[in-house]
Amino acid sequence: MREYKIAAIPADGIGPEVIAAGLQALVALARRDxxxxxxxxxxxxxxxxxxxxxxxxxEDGVEQLKTFDAIFFGAVGAPDVPDHITLWGLRLPICQxxxxxxxxxxxxxxxxxxxxxxxxxxxxLDWVIVRENSEGEYAGSGGxxxxxxxxEVGTEVAIFTRVGVTRIMRYAFRLAQSxxxxxxxxxxxxxxxxxxxxxxxEIAAEVSEEFPDVSWDKMLVDAMTVRMVKQPQSLDTIVxxxxxxxxxxxxxxxxxxxxGVAPTANIDPERRYPSMFxxxxxxxxxxxxxxxxxxxxxxxxxxxxxxxxxxxxxAKRLMIAVEQVCADGVMTPDVGGTATTRQVTDAVCxxxxxxx
Length: 356
Ligand code: ATP
Ligand code: MG
Fold this sequence. Notes:
GO molecular function: D-malate dehydrogenase (decarboxylating) (NAD+) activity; magnesium ion binding; NAD binding; tartrate decarboxylase activity; tartrate dehydrogenase activity
Number of helices: 11
Keywords: Manganese, Metal-binding, NAD, Oxidoreductase
Bound molecules: adenosine-5'-triphosphate, magnesium ion
Catalytic activity: tartrate + NAD(+) = 2-hydroxy-3-oxosuccinate + NADH + H(+); (2R,3S)-tartrate + NAD(+) = 2-hydroxy-3-oxosuccinate + NADH + H(+); (2R,3R)-tartrate + H(+) = (R)-glycerate + CO2; (R)-malate + NAD(+) = pyruvate + CO2 + NADH
EC number: 1.1.1.83, 1.1.1.93, 4.1.1.73
CATH superfamily of the largest domain: Isopropylmalate Dehydrogenase
Organism: Paracoccus onubensis
Oligomer: single chain
């Protein structure tokens, strides 16, 4: 039997609630399949630890995670801890330490969930957004000169490297190739930004030669927002920079109905290190402890994790169970239902057990 070593980092707010739900579903899948299992180690890192010790995780935290097959992450952030501390104290060191340069965000309208787009339902919107996760606008380059003076200048320099752009482009083309439509949209702003963005366009054209069976097109990011709303059916796989994809994926999440159903994976495609799987939503302290956190995003990212581990059948089975439960109307209040986290989780586990 294959046993996968999973590092669970539930962290803050509703993180522990949704990670517990996700682990329950993983156990149900393993029981049903019999061919694999999980050895889960939980880490109590996060804002509570910060308040007690001054750091969100131990100094050698990233090192401690190195030997795991995957990281299953909840949510980080607390009302009384500044955002940049929680962000830079836990998630980003893991993403950077393990060079998880591909951030992968599938978006689909699940049955029973309403998109704000009129007449758009399941099947009309089925995208995967690939976000460059290691450089670009969030490289941290820049500074401020003449601080506080009338002539003050602040710069925020986007850094794109040939290595960085080529590897994310290859990942995106390969992903597009693995999907039925074999279609990729490359997003830039190369009309206004004449250097790094033009390089993106050029590298896209170069890499496309390696994938003759994938068709692709280019979009400027502003026009892309319009296309996502007006012609969602025309898109499939999408690749964009760190900043552009950050914005586009929030729009995508909203079009798909709720933050509570949006998953993400931070992938090291070369598999040198563990990849990290998490719901997109934050710690949501307004609903923490009420038992109504939507676990669907976490189930979905658990399916991404299974796929990454090579358990594609189990991943498929999990998503079929989730879609069946959504279609049956067993949903939390954020997507218009009345069920609790536990009821949704039990229903999904039941559907897993009952599936053929
Ligand atoms: P962050 O600071 O990381 O953005 P947050 O606490 O602001 O975290 P968000 O993820 O931004 O939380 O979510 C905004 C709101 O959406 C939450 O306050 C909550 O009401 C709702 N929400 C988010 N995720 C879920 C979920 N899984 N289930 C139900 N409601 C959710
Ligand atoms: Mg928020």
